[in-house]
């Protein structure tokens, strides 16, 4: 492609070519970044929450800084030179939420979801599903993991203004992938547990310093999160992270696993998963081994559900589904045939129905209960190749 056509791609409507959908629920959605602690043992997350409408609110960038373009280029293409291309095409895209918007209080508080990203991703690449869930009345904390599985991430040292970057790391040569990934999944699940502890600290009135924004005070969350109603959710590596987090933390009442990559979980742990899991799979990603692991969990717990969305690929459950253009499909692989808005609706409605059931919510999300049985347009029960043997 000549440079001209690239610059045209980048300057579509609304300062970018990514058209992320607004939440369909009754609440406006606000968003802020939270970093706690000055070491890699701290936490970094993007918070999506119901907010009050405010005139002149700004929208946050989808790719928060240029370093993330470089990390993404490195991970997906193993080519740094593409980062300039990515900056041109997606560097200006924004998420349709109010940056640092005023939190909308709710007596009794909102249920909480801790969200875990996939391999080579980071906290902002699931903005569409996080925004959607927040619009239906959830506080969603999208973590950025520091186990070297994010495309890139960083923490701020105690020395003023100094950042330490944590790059993506491939499996070291000569090391078995299972052992490398298993160590990571345990670290990721621990980070999910620490994130929940952070919200417990805030709820108990402890003063928690967000080293990124002093202008958005975390204490507004104090009486506005219902810590009896907490779920964990994630995509791919994040999906299996969510399953493991159920083992590590009894306060998580259920998990939603989007196209979970089950490989890194050791077999010993399967009997230990005490709570229900909703597995929402895409049509093209799963292997028989991975599905067999999901079925081990569903055979132990009748509330665990497995469904597949037809016409979808692994990336369909990320924001990349909403990127138009041949360039992006060349960069990030094939696109699914299902309209991404339809895919997002099925994913979030199934998740909402499941969350209502297991967090005891008094909403009307049970209108989507059929999806949990794999009944509906573009949905089937179980996994695609389980169906072929029926």
UniProtKB/TrEMBL annotation:
The keyword Lipid metabolism applies. It is an enzyme of class 3 (hydrolase). Coiled coil: none annotated. The active site is at 236 (nucleophile), 259 (charge relay system), 314 (charge relay system). It holds the Pfam family PAF-AH_p_II. This is 1-alkyl-2-acetylglycerophosphocholine esterase. PANTHER family: PLATELET-ACTIVATING FACTOR ACETYLHYDROLASE, PLATELET-ACTIVATING FACTOR ACETYLHYDROLASE 2, CYTOPLASMIC. It comes from the Eukaryota. SUPFAM superfamilies: alpha/beta-Hydrolases (SSF53474). Keywords: Hydrolase, Lipid degradation, Lipid metabolism. GO terms for biological process: lipid catabolic process. InterPro entries: AB_hydrolase_fold (IPR029058), PAF_acetylhydro_eukaryote (IPR016715). Its EC number is 3.1.1.47. GO terms for molecular function: 1-alkyl-2-acetylglycerophosphocholine esterase activity. The keyword Glycoprotein does not apply.
